[in-house]
Design goal:
With 248 residues, this protein is an alpha/beta fold. The protein has 8 helices and 10 strands. The chain is globular and about 40 Å long. The model has no long low-confidence stretch (mean pLDDT 96). Bound molecules: 6-phosphogluconic acid. 6-phosphogluconic acid binds next to β5.
């Protein structure tokens, strides 16, 4: 493990980083629940997180008191129906939410089936605002402080649905959620994503990466020699940043 101030890099087998990343999520859940009575967790999309979600499902099933105080959000979503094979919601539902019996009212899917994607982004921002307002006053200049945001990364260095081919979304400074259309994504097309000000307001950010190319890029970002890709702009203002990378 390498570490700098509030920045940590873990490299190992898929099994090891899955074990350690899950342990960190559970530890942060316990801390958040002790501190505020609840744990706000933002899930990553793509395929990589599946083993992590399966491990977390086992942990939440073994600790129902944690599960009942955890609230699930998404960092981004493809604009597809909830049961579409490309849906980030569907992957998390299958691998984590259903196996751990998370109640529906703790699951906040992005409204990605709406045809008006700009309205969908506004709707999700309003939902997040209501969730955080319920706990404490939130002036408009502040951003929500999620307890933990899980992120993946593409080999091109995109994260969530923040892509180099969408500088407007990537450099958004005010909105919490934006809609965009990317040709760089796999799949390409309409997306919803949290913006960097929201991501960087989190108490903890955890990148979970599987693959050699991603691992090499992640190390360059961690060491500061890569500063141009979207993932290199993930810099928590007051929180901690963890990289978990399986490179074989
Ligand atoms: C998405 C994701 C995206 C993902 C990376 C890696 O909706 O596409 O949120 O940021 O994490 O593209 O995806 P894989 O894990 O499938 O490689």
């Amino acid at each position: 493990m390498k570490s700098e101030k509030n920045r940590f890099f873990f490299k190992g087998s898929e099994e090891k980083i899955t074990e350690d990343a899950a342990a960190l999520v559970i530890a942060e859940a316990q801390k958040a629940i002790e501190r505020s009575g609840r744990f706000s967790l933002v899930l990553a999309g793509g395929n990589s997180p599946r083993p992590l979600y399966q491990k977390l499902a086992r942990e939440f099933s073994a600790n129902p008191s944690l599960a009942e105080k955890t609230w699930f959000f998404w960092g981004d979503e493809r604009c597809t129906p909830a049961d579409h094979p490309d849906s980030n919601y569907r992957m998390a539902k299958e691998s984590l939410l259903v196996p751990s019996g998370i109640p529906e009212d703790h699951i906040f899917r992005m409204p990605a089936s709406k045809t008006d994607t700009a309205e969908a982004a506004r709707e999700y921002e309003a939902l997040i605002r209501t969730f955080f307002l319920a706990a404490a006053p939130l002036s408009t200049k502040n951003f929500p402080e999620f307890d933990l945001i899980l992120l993946g990364m593409g080999e091109d260095g995109h994260t969530a649905s923040l892509f180099a081919d969408n500088p407007e979304a990537l450099h958004e400074k005010k909105q919490w959620v934006v809609a965009l259309n990317t040709q760089q994504g796999k799949p390409p097309g309409e997306r919803l994503t949290l913006t960097l000000p929201v991501i960087n307001s989190a108490r903890n950010i955890l990148f979970y990466l599987i693959g050699k190319e991603k691992g090499k890029l992640a190390e360059k970002i961690f060491l500061g020699s890569e500063k141009s890709v979207p993932a290199s702009l993930v810099e928590p203002r007051n929180g901690k940043l963890f990289w978990f990378s399986a490179q074989q």
